[in-house]
Amino acid sequence: xxxxxxxxxxxxxxxxxxxxxxxxxxxxxxxxxxxxxxxxxxxxxxxxxxxxxxxxxxxxxxxxxxxxxxxxxxxxxxxxxxxxxxxxxxxxxxxxxxxxxxxxxxxxxxxxxxxxxxxxxxxxxxxxxxxxxxxxxxxxxxxxxxxxxxxxxxxxxxxxxxxxxxxxxxxxxxxxxxxxxxxxxxxxxxxxxxxxxxxxxxxxxxxxxxxxxxxx
Length: 216
Hints:
Elements (H helix, E strand, L loop, with lengths): L2 H14 L11 H13 L7 H14 L17 H10 L6 H16 L6 H6 L9 H18 L8 H8 L3 H10 L4 H6 L12 H14 L2
Helix pairs in contact: 1-5, 2-5, 4-5, 7-11, 9-11
């Protein structure tokens, strides 16, 4: 099956699990749809009222309001990753996140081996980039630097920010690598940059520029 065939099969199977819209499984768009469905759809969610009451109790117990955490927040790249992040924090995710993950897994099982978990949860591989794990790795490697290079990050003074803006991209890359690719944490803990043990900046920037072209 090519990618178009897989996409069509996913859409067809989505109908069997209650998704009437052609929304991708394991997506925040689908989470938003389920959130709306939970307000009124007693046929597909006969337990919705009890779950909403339970969620209010959980939200208070987790101090969501105090922590300024909103139910609509997208706290990870995908609902599946949000579920896993809730194990690390720990924090329970609302029912619409859990339902969207279950829905995606149901689609995978209904496909009877015609689709992989990768196909259903993360979509097809991208030429020149790879599967989802490879894309996430590159986004973490270069996406954070892109944010830093454009002026994002921790700057203690206006002078420090101005100095950063006047640096060349090459100088920013060297500084970023010298801080262990995490300058914010390094500065918080007053960790000095290590300019003697860093990856080759030119090689890193070549990879960064390829990533930029791919992610335009």
